[in-house]
Amino acid sequence: DGEVHMNELKNGNTEMFWNPTSEVRRQRLKRHIVLFEEQMDFESERLWQHVTSAINKGDQHKATQEKFVLEEEQRNAARERRESGTEWKPLLFRHDAGTNEWHYKYEDLRPWDPLNDIAQFEKDGILQTMERHLSTRMSNHKATCINNQITRHKRSAKDCRRRKTSDQPSNHSQNTESSCSTPESVQDLSDDDGKYLGFESLCAQCGKEMNHLKEIHSAVLSLQKAQQDIHR
């Protein structure tokens, strides 16, 4: 947030390298962070707080010491795991034995779609993208719910017809009423048809997913506006 200067050691000249004017500050994206008191012990801001404090005070020696303390603790923890045979299982990263490199499990390398993608955010360490339209996963899940209920409805109707036929004696009129009723064709059921059959609530997961998407959408409206300003 402050001015940055470059000092030329050969001739002693000083040159302005960066000056964040009030106009630059106004154009910055709003920063969303977890409150310090709500962070876990190994989150970066809390873990490196003493190093950061020393850097802000201009105390390079103190910053180096604090950094060494952190790194030494990590080395000791790794040594203890090796000695006890405890396997380290990262939640968010996988190890590539071929290249001996670590890779983020949930990296998203697809091109950004400005017509559909609103904002990208992190939740519980997992990178996610908020889209304008309902996600394909939600649509597929909804279709699966409908298909499963249609299948059960067909099976129930088939069993009903079978009981209706088997319960009637051979000399009985085929017009005898039955406690079961044959449903109408369900080949081309729409969402409204699903409601007609009593499928107003597809399943609990659908409801949770829908509410979750609404919450996310409300949370990223400010980011969406900022992104639109950037595109303009």
Automatic annotation (TrEMBL):
Polar residues bias: start-end ranges: 167-187
Region (Disordered): 144-187
Protein name in the entry: OSBL5 protein
Top-level taxon in the UniProt lineage: Eukaryota
Coiled coil location: none
Listed GO MF terms: lipid binding
Compositionally biased residues, Basic residues: 151-164
Membrane spanning stretches: none
InterPro entries noted in UniProt: OSBP_sf, Oxysterol-bd
